[in-house]
From TrEMBL:
Native species: Fictibacillus terranigra
Keyword Hydrolase: yes
Protein name: SGNH/GDSL hydrolase family protein
Protein EC: 3.1.-.-
Keyword Signal attributed: yes
Domain SGNH hydrolase-type esterase: 37-226
GO molecular function, one term: hydrolase activity
Top-level taxon: Bacteria
Keywords assigned: Hydrolase, Signal
Root EC class: hydrolase
Pfam families per UniProt: Lipase_GDSL_2
Signal peptide from the UniProt entry: 1-24
Length: 240
């Protein structure tokens, strides 16, 4: 089913709104992990049918548990509909988020798609403003994380193509914008010494399998597991 760009403008937001024993803590080769996930509805685990299910951070937490580590804490702050401005405000001023970042060993982030999508909904001619806002806010987010916790490992996600069901003419306009957003995310991750995790290569060629509802661009649980595997491929070297 092909959709037109007009359908996009009528749509809702893109990614809408106990301690272990002393023995376990000291097993040879074991390390403690505290994992924090930040992001929008992709981090929250929103499905193509509007409910919340197992998210990619949930799968990552299970991978930690299967590794030679002690997962002491896992906090998922993914919020459906979140923009980079909202996440920036949390990182700068939300006491709970700040506390967990300070104690984290590993952080995953996905943010920025809603900045772009909201501009597309209001005035497509200003779509680049959404990308620039996401880029600037991500810089602030990553800088603040470094100030709060200089030793934490940070991994920043690039988005899959959420426009796969749209007609060719619409995709000719929309896909380069998504690519530009990912380029901005990759640039900011690299310039701050963090790792960029692309997901399009895993999702886009199988979008009907992972994004089965033509009227919604969220992934199913299989899609989130695929994203988690992409993250883990990058993260596992920092766990050993």
């Amino acid at each position: 089913m092909k959709k037109s760009f007009a359908a996009l403008l009528a749509a809702s937001t893109l990614f809408s709104f106990a301690p272990l024993t002393a023995y376990a803590d000291h097993q040879e080769g074991q390390k403690n992990v505290e994992y924090v996930a930040l992001g929008d509805s992709i981090a929250a685990g929103m499905t193509p049918y509007g409910d919340i299910d197992k998210s990619y951070p949930d799968f990552i937490s299970s991978y930690f548990k299967r590794s030679n580590v002690s997962l002491k804490d896992y906090d998922n702050f993914g919020v459906p509909g979140y923009t980079s401005e909202q996440l920036k405000n949390d990182v700068l001023a939300n006491p709970e988020v700040i506390k967990e970042i300070r104690g984290a060993t590993h952080i995953t982030i996905n943010i920025g798609a809603n900045d772009l999508f909201r501009k597309l909904m209001t005035d497509p001619r200003n779509a680049w403003e959404g990308i620039e806002a996401a880029k600037a806010n991500l810089q602030t987010i990553l800088e603040k994380i470094d100030l709060l916790n200089a030793d934490v490992h940070v991994y920043v996600m690039g988005y899959y193509n959420p426009f796969s069901y749209y007609d060719k003419e619409s995709q000719n306009f929309l896909v380069p914008l998504n690519d530009a957003l990912n380029s901005a995310i990759e640039e900011k991750a690299g310039s701050n010494g963090d790792l960029y995790v692309p997901t399009g290569g895993k999702i886009d060629s199988h979008f009907e399998k992972y994004m089965p509802n033509p009227e919604d661009n969220h992934l199913n649980v299989k899609g989130y597991k695929a994203i988690a595997k992409q993250f883990w491929h990058v993260m596992e070297k920092d766990v050993k």
